[in-house]
Structures are given as C-alpha cells and as structure tokens.
Amino acid sequence: MRLVAWNANHNNKRRTLEQNVELLAAFSADVLVVSETAPPSDANPTGALWTGVNGWPGLAVVARTGLVLEPHGANPLSPPLMAGYRVSGRVGFNLLGIWPVQHAGGLTYSQILESALAQYSDLLSQQAIMAGDLNSSTSVSGQPKSHQRFVSAAEEIGLISAYHHQTGEDHGSESINTYRHNATQSFHIDYCFLSRSFVDAANLGIASGRGWSALSDHSPVVLDIPDAAFAPL
Is the model's pTM score more than 0.90? Predict the structure, then answer.
C-alpha cells in the first residue's frame, strides 16, 4: 500500500484538485492526502472527499486502486481541515488526514493537533495512519516545547513518526526537510504518524528535485507499507 501526502501550495499555485491528482499520478499511490488544495469540481472525477470552507483551499483525500473511504462519525464536529476515514479493500486501515491552520485568536497548531488526537482517539487506536502537513516542528520558533508535547501525546496512543523511526533522527534534527520557507530556511513539517504495528515494515521517502520545487513549497511524502503488514480490521 502506498500513500502520498502533499501540500499543493494553492495559495501560490492556483491549480485544480484534479490537476494536483494528475501531478501525483506518477507515484501510483493507493491513497492521496492533499492539503492546501482547491475543492473537487462538480463532476469530481477523482472521487475525492474534501473538507474545507468554500472559497478557501482545503484538504482532500483520494482512494484509488479499488480502495474505499468511509468517513468517520466525528468528522462533522472535528476541528477544521481534518477528517478521519476507514479505508477498506485489499487492505484495511484507519486514516486521519490533517492540515492544521492557525488563525489569529484561535487555537495554536499544537492545540489543534492535540485536539485531533482526542477527537479521533478511537480511530487512531489501531492500525492507523495520521498524514499531512502538520505545520509543526521543534525547529520552528515558538514550537520546540509544543511540538514535542504533541509527539509525546501521539506516542501515548501508539502513533510514531515513520520518518524519525526509520532514520533514528530526533525531531528538529532532520537531515531532509519537507517545506521551503524561503531561500535560507526550510523545515520538516510534513509527516506520516503510524501505529506501532506498521512502523518496522514501513518505508518513507521524500520526493525531491527541481520539478517538485517548482510546483509547491512542500515536497511529497511517500509512504510504503507491505500489504502483508495489514491485519483484518
């Protein structure tokens, strides 16, 4: 099973959701989690499930290769720009797509992330993937303590960052970053957090190259988990 998470940078690159899905087609992914993207067209040929506010970019989840998305009952009451799904088909797992956005006077990024863990605690308790642009890193000014608090809270419910488990690097000391803030600053803020039952079998890569840097200020995160690692849900 391959999942790709990507922030499509709609605020600077005004593509349709369908165009973003087509750009990701080369990965041959089973599931796409696309943040900062336009909503589907009325025809919605991709079958995307989208969450957001009309007129603003949102979060889209697309299931392919015969997999099916079943929305979680908590979605209507969840914080904005996140949605949980039961994924079924040749493999079954629980998925939380997330793109926290901080507004003046509202919840901070870490508060949004921690509220997501609480809101979807049942979904994330087994065979789960939490994926997206989390806008959080110990390298970001003002976030060292709050990001680590979120990481600890995720670990308490059994979710581990695939990148950090795979590389052995600490949060904030990543050798590969996923987001280019400007010409001199970049950060690792796009993640796949996995249930412990997945992390040893999983492989996570970060797409690079001038092609992707021209399309977005974020790099796609590519997660592979062998089908044999999935138990029946």
Answer: yes
